[in-house]
Amino acid sequence: MTTSNLGAGTSLRRLLAATAVSDSANGVFAVAAVLGARQLGGSAPAVAAVGAAATLPWLLAVPAGMLVDRVDRARAITACNLGRGALMLALGALLLIGAPAVPALVVVVFGVAVLQTVVDTAAESLVPDLVRAAELTRANGYLAVSTRLCHQAVGPLAAGLLFEVSAPTPVLVAGVGCAAAVVLLRGARARPTAPASPARLRTGVVLIARSPVLAATVAVSALTTLVNGAFMTVFVLYAISPGPLGLGESEYGLLLALVGLGAAGGSVLTSRFEALVGRGHLLWLTRVGWAAVFAAPVLLSGVALVVVVTLGSFVGGMWSVLAMTARQRNSEPRHRGQVAGASRMITYGCAPIGAGLGGVLGEFLEPRAIFLGAAVATLATILLLRPAR
């Protein structure tokens, strides 16, 4: 079924098109920023500074959610994409004239990431205003695949090719992409929502804590993110030669790309699988899918490993759509942004914790033990899913 079959067709298509272009631009810029830090700074601290600047703004996801609930969400996306585009184009101009770039790069990356928290939160909160309730899971699937495919695959691939032309080229292209996203969103109209209630920093967290469904959903997402952070920290050393899997850098990149593509395919088909097996069964199947990805390197290699991690990510990737739908259906329209912001802050905040945990465990345990532990921990999250079924 195409997006034209969905309730508010034109407006949803505009949002999806704008999100696809915006996410592609974000993927281009993110990779270009890291490559630029490596080329211009030539040091690990420069690269680390860019990485920190890109992730720290997610600690501001709660105020971003508060803002989204106080303003027109489509206009918030437009304004922030204009800001992101302006910052990227300004950085590109600095690179063209050969100005001292590393400090400017860090500042711009931070600014772009701050605005991105608003864009992502507003897009998630806007979808329920554009479609009928029965079509929400399918619409969320289309939105999720934009992130999986455009941000994690198309953008990085384009960045690598454009960076070979020159360092400013991918930055300038990303800036133009943000401007194009603004044009694509023009004319999107949502149903009116109730006036927002007075916003407080703790509102989103309190609403999540009070709702068994929201609490379970966020807890599972956070724990999965933590486990994935630990897994990835160890897996890169295990996978790339001279590690046991003996992969080259390009083969490792291809394996990660297949995980992203598998998750993207699962995102698109979530609504169909939900209708086929039921929401409750699909929720725990997503846990089995990611557990299979984490456990696969213990026993498999070569083609068998590729097949299992691709299929596992296909099933596991449906979780993000189901979780997004649960947040939307279990929060009032006037609180939707605050709930989404608090959820993102909690979930994404677990990523660096997981990475640190993986680094510590890697000093004391064999990689296979960590992989098995990650799989078992993921399966254990099934016990938390009862309220969300």
TrEMBL record:
GO cellular component, one term: plasma membrane
Record keywords: Cell membrane, Membrane, Transmembrane, Transmembrane helix
Subcellular location: Cell membrane
Species for this entry: Saccharothrix syringae (Nocardiopsis syringae)
GO molecular function: transmembrane transporter activity
Transmembrane segments: 46-68, 89-115, 167-186, 207-240, 252-270, 368-385
Pfam families tied to this protein: MFS_1
Lineage, broadest ranks: Bacteria, Bacillati, Actinomycetota, Actinomycetes, Pseudonocardiales
Topology in the lipid bilayer: Multi-pass membrane protein
Name of the featured protein: MFS transporter
